[in-house]
Amino acid sequence: MVRLRFAPSPTGHLHIGGARTALFNFLYAKKFGGDFILRIENTDQARNVESATEKFLEGFKWLGLDWDEGPDVGGAYGPYIQMDRLSIYQNYIERLVREGKAYYCYCTKEEEDLERERLKALGKVYHYSGKCRYLDEKTQKQYEKEGRSYTIRFRVPDDRDVLFTDLVRGDMKFNTNDIGDFIIVKSNGVPVYNFAVTVDDALMQITHVIRGEEHLSNTPCQILLYEALGWKTPEFGHLPLILNPNGKKLSKRDESIIQFIEQYKDLGYLPEALVNYLALLGWSPSGELSEEEIFSLDELIQHFSIDRVSKAGAIFDVEKLAWINGQYIKKADLDRIVDMAIPYLQKEGYIGENFDREWLTHLVSLFQSGMSAVSEITQLAKQFFVDDVSYDEEANQILAGESVSVVLSAFQAKVNTLEEYTPDNIKALLKEVQKETGYKGKQLFMPVRVAATGQNHGPDLNKTLYLLGKEKVLERINQILS
Hints:
This protein is mainly alpha-helical. The chain has helices spanning 16-31, 52-63, 86-98, 109-121, 137-145, 193-203, 219-228, 261-267, 271-279, 297-303, 318-331, 334-347, 357-367, 377-380, 393-399, 404-417, 423-437, 442-453, 461-468, 470-481; strands at 3-6, 35-38, 102-105, 151-154, 161-166, 170-175, 183-185, 208-212, 235-239, 242-243, 314-315. The chain has a 3-stranded antiparallel beta sheet. Strands 1-2 form a two-stranded parallel sheet. The mean pLDDT is 93.
């Protein structure tokens, strides 16, 4: 059985890059009837953010990416939080030291920084010199007597090629001379990422590791650890970077793109739309589906294939995401969209705790097909809640047309005599105004729409006038005629 995992560090909110990585792991696991595991990698205590783990769990649940094992659901290979696994790591650390595959390093940070600067001046890439690799027992005891702190380094074999076939990038080769002996345990006794992740993946029987390409350079180190501990190496696949619209690597400081899942939730995006879009960031379906862009989660599972993942960076297209979300909103159950719209309208002060649900449902239905995010309802429907309407330059030009006073006067008179103010009766009334005035098309409908709403374009006019209410429509038309 295939077993894949997503293992975020709790350093903040769930990022779109992390969500895409989790999604690809989820799709691969479910495609082959396997398990998807969620694990929290929190050994870098200095960078951890309080409550970030809970935020991650909430984000994944909102997206609909359910895990088979994890910190909240348990499983046969727990614990699923790294800092709860320190005693497990200790056994393997001691084993590597005992077998001569790892050693104590007493070099200070200052010494390493000096070496790094020296190599930089020579135009060389830094890796550890191996100064403590062959410390004799006498020197080691002297350092311990002096109370020197130490790290533990892995003894990297000399002049050896580390080879593996990446699921996305094909055959890869790294030479150990370019790696250097790397730290596996920090001076505080806590294992570093490369060591902890290797132990966790091995003991949790992870078969495939799919992650971002920034981890590519970590892979040879982890393969060497797998070999040293006598474990089978999983298959690795490294996903392309997500790029901003200018084709540059996406930075968390890039303000041109909303980057955190929680923000999309707050804006009124549908989780299934976001999942759909994230799947298309670096992956595309094959054959006759290659032009399709709308996929349910079940369809993504069915069609996902790792060999269709691109090596090239994936550009984050804000407009395409908005379009996809709009397609999902359009097809969504109306009651769901109404429920999503209510908090935005309440926050804006447009409705209170008690409101006419039937009227609001009709209102939201007017705009459902035109929204790219549900939060847009406050701007789209503003004219239904405010007392005064503002008219822009284009609206004023329309209201200055020769047909306006004639049309609005006729419309006003007929609305005043209308006993039942319904969309059908309003439609019939407008036909009567057309016959009476001789104006039709834009010369008839535009003045009425602009006078009543302040907008040049909008949803069905008859329904709009009905939902505005007879009083408000007459008041606004009277204001224009005055």
